[in-house]
Amino acid sequence: MTKKTIAVLPGDGIGPEVTTAAINVLETIADKYDHHFTFQQGWIGGSAIDEKGDPLPRETKEMSAESDGILLGAVGGPKWDRLPGAERPEKGLLEIRKSLDLYANLRPVKAYASLIESSPLKEAIVANVDFLIVRELTGGLYFGEPKKREDIRGETQAIDTLLYKASEIKRIAERAFQAAQLRNGKVVSVDKANVLESSRLWRETVDDVHASYPDVELEHMLVDNAAMQLIAQPAAFDVMVTENTFGDILSDEASMLTGSLGLLPSASLGSTGVGLYEPVHGSAPDIAGENRANPLAAISSAAMMVKYGFKMEKEAEKIETAVEKVLADGYRTADIAPKMEEAVTTTEMTDAVIKALE
Ligand SMILES: NC(=O)C1=CN([C@@H]2O[C@H](COP(=O)(O)OP(=O)(O)OC[C@H]3O[C@@H](n4cnc5c(N)ncnc54)[C@H](O)[C@@H]3O)[C@@H](O)[C@H]2O)C=CC1
Ligand SMILES: CC(C)CC(=O)C(=O)O
Ligand SMILES: [Mg+2]
């Protein structure tokens, strides 16, 4: 019997609904394969501000650092939108990523053949969309200093800093080339090197790292073109590596190649051994509490946890196959249902996945 302790940070909005779904799936896997998973809940985000006065309370940080893996829902919502940046729910998420040095955010984008009708980009799904976004997660605009507001000659101005060290670029580039070696051997590095100094360093550093991976093909692409190419020829991508902000935006765009943001999982990995697994989507305040959220992104994030965090390949594959099966069987939450009256709820979708696991 393998024992694992999982820190569960549901967060805000639909976060608690989708993490409950993922926990139910993990419990079924534990029963089936004779593992013992212990779940420890912690506060993060807006709910942590309300309960503890801090978007990342010390207890959450410690419990997460000591766990074998962190399962996170999402943070944020209109209730906290007027708070200053340093006190907002999102700060809790940025801080846990930074404090655990989770610099590599893997966001697989894989279309399900059974969802062709649900995508506004049907041709994309037909074209077998299957690529990996490797997003740098602990540098760039979200973290660079100075980050502040100031009054200059009677006018308020705001500053964010886009800062990258060569060492930060080097380690994420290495992750991308290694991922490509296990896939189809092609990396597209996305930057804005025609305008940004940080992107010029990015490009030079990626080129330097590439010298050690001669078996991998490398192409540099400017981010505006990349945004277009994702729609024009999504099947041409294998691994895309990019900095924090570009990766954040391009992965939401890429989600629509699969049919919905509610389908994309992610794994954030780093140097400390503990990984954080969360859906790509946010807290979706517009549907929170309605049992309408698609739980498949969170469930697939749990699959990434057992695969990357616990090295349980067959358990991960079991979850992935169950997700494929429920979609092939026609289960559709509202975000992917062609007809609203045919949509299933979050809990019905979760129950269908659990049944498919048995
Ligand atoms: N990782 C995180 O915790 C993230 C948090 N956020 C926060 O979430 C809040 C809302 O941000 P938005 O811009 O609205 O982005 P969002 O990702 O929460 O929602 C965007 C749209 O996608 C839909 N959607 C998202 N997840 C879904 C799911 N599982 N099933 C069905 N539909 C789904 C929503 O209903 C909404 O229409 C903000 O406070 C933002 O800062 C946003 C992105 C990531
Ligand atoms: C707080 C944000 C940076 C979260 C987000 O949008 C993301 O990580 O995708
Ligand atoms: Mg995002």
From TrEMBL:
Principal location: cytoplasm
Cofactor(s) listed: Mn(2+); Mg(2+)
Residues engaged in binding NAD(+): 77-90, 282-294
All residue ranges annotated as the Isopropylmalate dehydrogenase-like domain in the record: 5-353
InterPro entries per UniProt: IsoCit/isopropylmalate_DH_CS, IsoPropMal-DH-like_dom, Isopropylmalate_DH
Top-level lineage group: Bacteria
Functional pathway: Amino-acid biosynthesis; L-leucine biosynthesis; L-leucine from 3-methyl-2-oxobutanoate: step 3/4
GO MF term set: 3-isopropylmalate dehydrogenase activity; magnesium ion binding; NAD binding
HAMAP family linked: LeuB_type1
NCBIfam families linked: leuB
Free-text function comment from the UniProt entry: Catalyzes the oxidation of 3-carboxy-2-hydroxy-4-methylpentanoate (3-isopropylmalate) to 3-carboxy-4-methyl-2-oxopentanoate. The product decarboxylates to 4-methyl-2 oxopentanoate.
Protein name, per record: 3-isopropylmalate dehydrogenase
Organism of origin: Salicibibacter kimchii
